[in-house]
Amino acid sequence: MLVRRPLSKKLLAGLLFLAGGLVSLSAFGHTIEGSDASFVEAIDGPAIFPFMYLGAKHMVTGYDHLLFLIGVIFFLYRPKHVVQYVTLFAAGHSITLLLGVLADLQVNAYLIDAIIGLSIVYKAFENIDGFKRVVKIQPNTKIAVFIFGLFHGLGLATKLQEFELSDNGLVTNIISFNIGVEIGQILALSFVFIVLSLWRTSGSYLRHSFVTNTALMAGGFMLAGYQMSAYFLQPSF
User: Fold this and answer.
1) Taking CA 217 as the corner, what is the angle to CA 213 and CA 218, rounded to the nearest 5 degrees?
2) Measured in whole angstroms, how far is the alpha carbon of residue 170 from the centre of its chain?
3) Are 113 and 162 a contacting pair, CB within 8 Å?
4) Low-confidence stretches of the chain (pLDDT beneath 70)
5) Does some domain include residue 148?
6) Per-residue pLDDT tens digits for 35-72
7) Strands (E), the chain
């Protein structure tokens, strides 16, 4: 499936630049801040459409979630297969997003985000046949996507747990946020699938698939490393 080519100096530099860029993004992105944060903290009562907007915006700007999903659909050629895997992911993150916020499930955000980074590594490693080549096993991809979906949902929950959410309309607002996440996911993946489909018409797709997934792995490792560094450097109380 994959064509392995030695990395040129330019390609290697490009991978390092991508990984470094992801680390920089991880310091500033994937949060609810500014006017959005002020709104979340001030709302008292159901606010269906604003929370749907926030959920969609959070997913579209949630590069770690999107990188994982790009890895998931990278070698999926039929829309029905994309729907199957994305549905499993959505089911997983919906469960833990709702449970995490409504049941006030306390987890360490840094550790969860580190696992999310490693989920990108896992899928990219699978895409380059790493499990078959190195450990001689082939994990069940559908189960893995669902399990990682659970961790991604916890990651979303930790972002909302940063705020003092009013109990008035809480269930409605969290469900609305989750629906918005799904809408954002559909919009982002539709665009990605179209781009991948156009790229597949070119012979460069398979030629560069190994390099592309290596870049995904590098980004995942850097994201995980950044979060683990933050975990160990966080002040103890």
Assistant:
1) 115
2) 24
3) no
4) 1-34, 236-237
5) yes
6) 777 777 788 889 899 899 988 988 888 888 889 999 99
7) none
